[in-house]
Each structure stands twice: as structure tokens, then as C-alpha cells.
Amino acid sequence: MTQHDSATWALEPRPDAPCLLLSEVARIVGGERVGNANPSLTGVAGIREAEAGDLTFVAQRRYAPFLWTTRASAVIIGR
Fold first, then answer.
1. What is the rounded distance in angstroms from the CA atom of residue 20 to the CA atom of residue 25?
2. Which of 2, 19, 45, 48 has a Cα at 20 to 30 A from 68?
3. What is the model's pTM?
């Protein structure tokens, strides 16, 4: 197995993968949950690739427009 193969394998979703609530992630990273939703998060993905259940982030302003079209369940945004 090559390094690429093992990385791909590690990123494949598993039906038995644990999930975290958004409120738990906010506590872990010292963040603040905004809004009433508290979705279960089962993965992490880039803002353009994210699907329901994924957590994503915006680290640079140029990605901010994707906030309107991302399918991620939650987004981490710096202050």
C-alpha cells in the first residue's frame, strides 16, 4: 500500500465512525456556537467538497463566498 493509498483509506467514511455535536467541537477548540442548530458532525472536508455531516472552515477571505453554497453542517470561522 502506498502512502497515498493509506491516506485515501483513512479518509473513507466508516459507518461506525464516532460523531461529535457542534457544541462539543466548539468546547474543544474554545469557540462559540452561533445559532440554534447543534448538528452531529461525522467528518471534515474542504468548504467546496463538504457534505451534510461535515465540518469545514474558512481560513482566508477568498473562501468566504463559498459560505453561501457549502453543504457542510458547520463552519469554523476565525474572528
1. 7
2. 19
3. 0.74
